[in-house]
UniProtKB/TrEMBL annotation:
Its cofactor is thiamine diphosphate. The gene is sucA. GO terms for cellular component: cytosol; oxoglutarate dehydrogenase complex. GO terms for biological process: glycolytic process; tricarboxylic acid cycle. GO terms for molecular function: oxoglutarate dehydrogenase (succinyl-transferring) activity; thiamine pyrophosphate binding. PANTHER family: 2-OXOADIPATE DEHYDROGENASE COMPLEX COMPONENT E1, 2-OXOGLUTARATE DEHYDROGENASE. E1 component of the 2-oxoglutarate dehydrogenase (OGDH) complex which catalyzes the decarboxylation of 2-oxoglutarate, the first step in the conversion of 2-oxoglutarate to succinyl-CoA and CO(2). NCBIfam families: 2oxo_dh_E1, PRK09404.1, PRK12270.1. It catalyses: N(6)-[(R)-lipoyl]-L-lysyl-[protein] + 2-oxoglutarate + H(+) = N(6)-[(R)-S(8)-succinyldihydrolipoyl]-L-lysyl-[protein] + CO2. SUPFAM superfamilies: Thiamin diphosphate-binding fold (THDP-binding). This is 2-oxoglutarate dehydrogenase E1 component. Its EC number is 1.2.4.2. CDD domains: TPP_E1_OGDC_like.
Length: 952
């Protein structure tokens, strides 16, 4: 044996998964392992522990470590000629190593590439000669009781054939990296018991061919009828449709009643027609630009979502294909959030009734970070969905021009799945039966273990990235092979006809039948239940086609206020809160009685309490939402005498009333993009829940900009999808530097149009109370962007008297509050938004400029024209209007509000800006510079007009 082979073998340095598995069997039943291994484990257990105690309960670690040291000597030890028994013992060990090798890396030799472009890699561990075996050893019988080939003893020859059939055929499995021994055993049994070989009836095979024929038939029909139009063809990956068909039926048999599907472009039109049952005539109308244009913007056909109810032998299944923009994997967390909402609506805690399915491209799953963020939520409380089935349409080319060496740094595109111990089934797309078998196994695994699993369909892309692309320009060799490929459908049809499963010519007849169905515009999927409405379907009709209104009855009676206040300030008997929290509770009790003004945290709590008491669930998530980043919320109390999580917390908002709606608060993983996408998906599926995502600092939303741009801001005008998600973004210039000052208000203002969302910067506790209640009480759903404060959380000036909660509602504008200001003497009006208001009031008092009035623009969008006009009428002698903001001039709301303010000004009035100068950075990082800028902007707000002045 060559020394370099020993150095590169995965066996050297310790085959931890194999040894641990063997040791697990030994602990359960010593007789289940070979004599050699039993002696070996017995000896290790007799070695005294470091503390001198018995090794009877020795952990796996020492076993693996001792084997690693032994393995450094090489897989085969030299044995003298007269020690035949010892030689046989080492051969038995070598057989176990051979089995482990195929389980671990047999997939590297699997026949999974339909184009057969790469040679089989050199993996010495898969060659019997690596262990010293010769042709003379092939008929020796060995103990194979730790396998699932149906025999406890097999010749080396038969064992080798069984291993290669199981792990090196058209289905190559990866699962040995999984830590859970039960799961590894499960996969070994499922794969080895059938040798990864499908055994379908003639009817089942015909059904598979029917699905592959439908997949190819649609693409070729569209190619002939709509030449050159983009459709992101599935040709080369037709087995995916057979995969989807099996997934639906097998999931239904396991009890699934809803499937939420997310996928990007490739094959999407095929799924719409051949899986979800969209009428072909509707699709053709879109190609011919004859479809209804009922939305302000609309979207291209391969971004559209769809839902339907499909009949299966086990009952109806509701399918929902999520709308998806061109940002590919960004749909992943949206699907997960939607699935979670549906699970909770059903009381389905494990995901037995609801299944999320994500379809990926090979380049995107490996290259886009949101994939990793989404996977990290898979088994986290508050986000888990009982396991997701991932399907990769693996084109082996990425996005057309990439050299395979530039696609990723990992061996497989699915290696990202290993971070959560998800098994991966690599399968040759030219073997539809293997694809269907992989699907059956994936569904069964998910049903039993409620964990993620991936199916990697290795196929090819016959056409370019889109139909106007010519991939042969950059991939000539690959596309010569593809050009000569007869197609998956023909290969499979010819195979079935050769086997006698189908009469000769059946394959061609099925092609003609499908084309006739297309010409007639008939549905081509399983029966669609057109009039079926499931018990758990949500009725969105009350929230649609409603005109915008700022009005809502959000005040609550004094008696209800007092009752709720008592509940949110109570803890169970024997529960000891932290002294600082105890002070908060005492203060909030006084606020509830009206003895002191209500602060921000209490205003929030009372909004939540009144909503859950009225039957509206509340879901709040963020990176520090239980306590609150600035420790203002204290929604979760921790028992200072206990440390165990479940026994040591108390959440008052869950104890408002016996029949209250749920209140959920989640400290999320350190993710913005995926968590925000998740909450958007949740709100999209659950209009009756106040769903909130809170950024730790407002600028953290930068990491979720794709979700904001592609879903939150534009989802309604593109897809007609209403959504009531709330984003809480701490915003305010407190001298905390560039990254902790601005929530990039200007970005949201640029996205505002078509009454698509609300952008609000409340400045009092009563305002946050009313706006949160308004979000649910009004009968329409629009995203709500809240620029929440930091210093105002504890500013007594921002606290509100109790009367503002039991009367009135949310004010889009807060007018001049100083009763000493004479409106007739006012010549200058300062309009501002946010924290700077309190700085301006203080500066006015210090400067004694009573001729200046200050009003707050609380709702930036939709712009409150009527309310502003009413305020301006109060000051008949105003000649100058100043917009004052904390943010630099090229940021904040200035460029958005100026034309809206001008619209309401009288002839001759002048409008000017007061604030920080334009800056490439959101804020300065030097404390002294922050103070200088703050002083300067306040001075300019009251000084003589200069610089950029607009005259009406």
């Amino acid at each position: 044996m060559m020394q370099d082979q020993r150095d590169t073998s995965y066996l050297f340095g310790g085959n931890a998964p194999y040894v641990e598995e063997l040791y697990e069997s030994y602990l359960h039943d010593p007789a289940s392992v070979s004599d050699h291994w039993r002696d070996y484990f017995d000896n290790v257990k007799q070695v005294p522990a470091a503390d001198g105690s018995s090794r009877s309960d020795v952990a796996h670690g020492p076993i693996v470590a001792s084997f690693a040291e032994r393995a450094k000597q090489g897989p085969i030890r030299t044995v003298s000629a007269d020690s035949a028994d010892s030689d046989m013992g080492f051969k038995r060990v070598a057989v176990q190593q051979l089995i482990a090798a195929y389980r671990n890396v047999g997939n590297r030799w699997a026949d999974i590439d339909p184009l057969k472009r790469t040679e089989r890699p050199d993996i010495p561990e898969l060659d019997p000669a690596f262990y010293g075996f010769t042709d003379g050893d092939m008929d020796i019988v060995f103990n194979t009781s730790n396998t699932f080939f149906g025999k406890n003893q097999m010749t080396l020859r038969d064992l080798l054939q069984a291993l290669r059939e199981t792990y090196c055929g058209t289905l190559g499995a990866e699962y040995m990296y999984i830590a859970d021994q039960k799961i590894k055993k499960w996969w070994q049994e499922k794969l080895e018991s059938v040798r990864s070989t499908p055994h379908f009836s003639a009817d089942q095979k015909r059904e598979i061919l029917d699905r592959v024929t439908a997949a190819e038939g649609l693409e070729r029909y569209l190619q002939a009828k709509y030449v050159g139009q983009k459709r992101f063809s599935l040709e080369g990956g037709e087995s995916f449709i057979a995969c989807m068909d099996e997934l639906i039926r097998e999931s239904s048999a396991k009890g699934v009643q809803e499937i939420v599907l997310g996928m990007a472009h490739r094959g999407r039109l095929n799924v719409l027609i051949n899986t979800l049952g969209k009428m072909p005539t509707d699709l053709f109308a879109e190609f011919e630009h004859k479809g209804p244009e009922t939305l302000p913007a609309g979207d291209v056909k391969y971004h559209q979502g769809f839902s339907s109810d499909i009949s299966t032998p086990s009952g109806p299944v509701h399918l929902s294909l999520a709308f998806n923009p061109s940002h590919l994997e960004i749909v992943n967390p949206v699907v997960e959030g939607s699935a979670r909402a549906r699970m909770e609506r059903r009381g389905d805690l494990l995901g037995e009734k609801v299944l999320p399915v994500l379809v990926h491209g090979d380049a995107a799953i490996a290259g886009q970070g949101v994939m990793q963020e989404t996977l990290m939520m898979a088994e986290v409380r508050g986000y888990s969905t009982g396991g997701t089935i991932h399907i990769v349409i693996n084109n082996q080319i990425g996005f057309t021009t990439s050299d395979p060496r530039d696609l990723r740094s990992s061996l497989y595109c699915t290696d990202i799945m290993k971070v959560i111990d998800a098994p991966v089934l690599h399968v040759n797309g030219d073997d539809p039966e293997a694809v269907v078998l992989a699907t059956k196994l994936a569904v069964e695994f998910r049903s039993q273990f409620h964990k993620d699993v991936a199916i990697d369909i290795v196929c090819f892309r016959k056409l370019g990235h889109n139909e106007q692309d010519t991939p042969a320009m950059t991939q000539p060799l690959m596309y010569k092979i593809i050009a000569a490929h007869p197609g998956t459908r023909k290969l499979y049809a010819d195979k079935l006809e050769a086997q006698g499963v189908l009469p000769v010519g059946t394959g061609d007849l099925m092609v003609k039948e499908y084309r006739a169905a297309m010409d007639a515009g008939k549905q081509t999927s399983d029966p669609v239940l057109s009039n079926f409405k499931g018990k758990f379907a949500v009725d969105w009709s009350p929230f649609l086609n409603k005109k915008w209104t700022d009005e809502a009855d959000t005040a609550i009676p004094l008696t209800e206020w007092r009752r709720l206040a008592e509940r949110v300030t109570s803890v169970r008997e024997g529960f000891k809160v932290h002294p600082l929290v105890e002070k908060v509770l005492n203060d909030r009790s006084a606020m509830g009685r009206g003895e002191i003004n209500v602060d921000w945290g209490m205003g929030e709590h009372m909004a939540f309490a009144s909503l859950v008491a009225s039957g509206y669930p509340v879901r709040l998530s963020g990176e520090d939402s239980g306590r609150g980043t600035f420790t203002h919320r204290h929604a979760v109390f921790h028992n200072q005498n206990r440390e165990k999580w479940d026994a040591g917390i108390y959440i008052p908002l869950r104890h408002i009333a016996k029949d209250q709606a749920p209140f959920v608060v989640i400290d999320s993983i350190l993710s913005e993009e995926a968590v925000l996408g998740f909450e958007y998906g949740y709100a999209a599926a659950e209009p009756n829940t106040l769903t909130i995502w809170e950024a730790q600092f407002g600028d953290f939303a930068n990491g979720a900009q794709v979700v904001i741009d592609q879903f939150i801001a534009s989802g309604e005008v593109k897809w007609g999808r209403a959504n009531g998600l709330v984003m809480m973004l701490p915003h305010g210039y407190e001298g905390q530097g560039p990254e902790h000052s601005s929530a990039r208000l200007e970005r949201f203002m640029q996205l505002c149009a078509d009454t698509n969302m609300q952008v609000i910067q409340p400045t009092t506790a009563s305002q946050i109370f009313h706006v949160l209640r308004r979000q649910m009480i009004r009968q329409f759903r629009k995203p709500l962007i809240l620029m929440t404060p930091k210093s105002l959380l504890r500013n007594k000036e921002a606290a509100s008297p109790l009367s503002e909660f039991t009367k009135g509602g949310f004010h889009t504008i807060l007018g001049e509050r100083d009763e000493t200001i004479d409106a007739k003497k006012v010549t200058r009006l300062i309009i501002c938004s946010g924290k700077v208001y309190y700085d301006l009031v203080k500066a006015r008092t210090e400067k004694k400029q009573d001729e200046v009035a200050i009003i707050r623009l609380e709702q930036l969008y939709p712009f409150p024209h009527k309310a502003l006009a009413a305020e301006l009428k109060k000051f008949s002698n105003v000649a100058e209007v100043i917009w004052c903001q904390d943010e630099p001039q090229n940021q904040g709301a200035w460029f958005f509000v100026q034309h809206n303010i001008l619209e309401n000004m009288s002839e001759g009035m002048k409008l000017a800006y007061a604030g920080r100068p334009a800056s490439a950075s959101p804020a300065c990082g030097y404390a002294h510079l922050h103070q200088e800028q703050q002083k300067s902007l306040l001075t300019s707000a009251f000084a003589k007009l200069k610089g950029y002045v607009i005259t009406k």
